[in-house]
Amino acid sequence: MNAAAELMAELHDVIDRVAALDTSAMEPSERRDLAVAVQRERNRLTVAASAPLSEWESRGEWWTDGSLNPSLALGRETKSCRHTSREELRRARRLQEMPHTRAAILDGRLSVDHADLFIRYATPARWPWFERNEEALVTLMTRHSLFDDCRRIMRYWADLVDDQLDAGREGPAPSTLYASRSKADGSLKLDGLLGTIDAEIVQTELRRREKEVRADNKAKGVRMTPAQVRAAALVRMAERSSNATGMQARPLFQLIVGDRKARQICELASGHIVTPHELLPYLDDAVMETFFFDGPKTVIAKSQMRLFKGVLRKAIQVRDRHCEHSSGCPTPSIDCDIDHRVPWTEGGETSQFNGGPKCPHQNRHKQFAGTPVPPAPERSVTRRDLRVVRLRWHIFNGADDPDDWLREQGSNLRPAD
What pLDDT, in 10s, does the model give residues 310-341? Predict the structure, then answer.
């Protein structure tokens, strides 16, 4: 038996031993450690298997039995779907050109999902930039526990690279909605697709109406499925529209724009990335709010084009982006409660330094409270601070180069001081 066969026999035996474990008899912490460790080892095994798999494909050794293509051969040999096999082969090929990504997965710092994320955004046109930025991107990704944050970073990076490549941007696809009404019973079937910003506007209002419907149902003792609640909320939206005064409503959505050129990239409060050309149809009528930050955490001031109640709440939502629960909850901050980090009953102040977003489930049920988040260090905010930050906003050109952007991201990930 050759060395590779002996190694595979050992691996086969280890897997059999893991499968034979009586997990029901384990302590909860032991069971959790086992489950997480197995997933990490599976990621490592995927990387370890990529080299022989890529070599097998590139040398044409799949053709020896007359198979039409490598994905068919691999699918047959492993009893897998040929489409799954094709993706495995594609990943294996690309991993051979991604040394920092491979090393990070083997070290347990990243997962195969990160590799797939890199592959998705590192298109052939962007590939030379990815080769230059791979190490910095890997370092940046390892600092984020939420994969949603990693996806957002890659979208930013891709848009910055496209600016460097002067890639022509296609306009956003127009939103579509199909309505088919039955002549038999008068029911209406809706189907369609809304663009990113249209979806933000509609979903923001729809969620508000859903809360109203749930509150009314609770008061009346009525039970509805989520789909029924959504339908009732949509009807309420139509009722409010028909009862309007005739003045055109102004679209309302929260937009997060960094202190760099507005021609680059922006982010909706829900976390979806948009480009400025997608905003153009909305700029004349939309209600915009701007928050000024000093460093990554401290809100200096808010420029108000429209007054809102709860300005402090909105500032914290913009600052923190998603639930800060210690488990790594991805709920966007716009759907979260804003609560005291040090409870009010224990002397905690109602300030941006002592406030943070928690999703309603984890905030309102104490058994899911998680590890408390300490308040940020207090710092005074003076009129001079405001003038300095406003001036910096107006004169700071920002860096178009993705290398500079990655360096800036690295410096901004330090703890707030």
Answer: 667 777 777 777 888 877 788 888 788 888 88
Which three-class secondary structure state does DSSP give residue 284? Answer: coil
Which residues fall within 8 angstroms of residue 112, CB to CB, at 6 or more apart?
Answer: 43, 46, 47, 91, 105
DSSP state of 191: E
Largest CA distance in the chain: 84
Between CA 253 and CA 242 the distance in angstroms is 22
Distance from chain centroid for Cα 192: 24
In which residue ranges of the chain is pLDDT below 70? 1, 167-172, 242-266, 269-271, 275-277, 279-311, 378-401, 404-405, 407-417
Q: Which two tokens stand for residue 262?
A: 């507005």
Q: How many residues does the chain have?
A: 417
SS (H, E, C) 142-186: HCCCCHHHHHHHHHHHHHHHHHHHCCCCCCCCCCEEEEEECCCCC
For residue 336, give every residue at least 6 positions away whose Cβ sits within 8 Å of its Cβ, in sequence order, or none.
317, 322, 323, 357, 358, 359, 360, 363
Return phi, psi of residue 55, to 5°. -65, -40
Would you state the pLDDT for residue 138? 94
